[in-house]
Amino acid sequence: MDEDVRTMRGPNCDSDHFFVKAQIKQKLIRTTTNVIKQIKWNQNNLMNTTKLKQYRTCLCNKLNKKGTQQDIEEEWAHIKQITIEAANESIQTQNMSTRNEWWNEV
Predict the structure, then answer these.
(1) In angstroms, rounded to a whole number, what is the distance separating the alpha carbons of residues 43 and 104?
(2) Domain boundaries in the chain?
(3) Residue 37 to residues 13, 76, 96: CA-CA distances in angstroms?
(4) Interaxial angle between packed helices 72-90 and 49-65, expressed in degrees from 0 to 180 and rounded to the nearest 10
(5) Are the C-beta atoms of residues 63 and 28 closer than 8 Å to each other?
(6) How far is it, in rounded angstroms, from Cα 86 to Cα 92?
(7) pTM exceeds 0.70 for this model
(8) Which pLDDT band holds residue 1 (cuts at 50, 70, 90)?
(9) N-terminal to C-terminal alpha carbon distance within the chain
(10) Rounded to 5 degrees, what angle do the CA atoms 72, 74, 75 make?
(11) Which of 89, 80, 82, 91 is nearest to 41 (CA)?
(12) 104: number of CA atoms within 13 Å, CB side?
């Protein structure tokens, strides 16, 4: 914490007290937030027409099989789950590469 405190003798208030000017700088602590791991889909499989057709048919079949729910939040969660399942089956995820490939562990 950084402080700068000074007495200001300039103003005259007919009192034996002086004004005090203080400037305080305080650093705020960073809090960590919950990091959501994003899924990276394999884009090469999306460029492949057979994989794309497989994804579309799988998604269409799963959406046709699902029943309707009364709550819109449940409906959205169900559609999201079906979309992710269909993508996992046909598109697959991309392999994560390390950032520092040049680093040698000794």
Answers:
(1) 30
(2) 43-90
(3) 62, 20, 12
(4) 150
(5) no
(6) 9
(7) no
(8) low
(9) 41
(10) 60
(11) 91
(12) 1
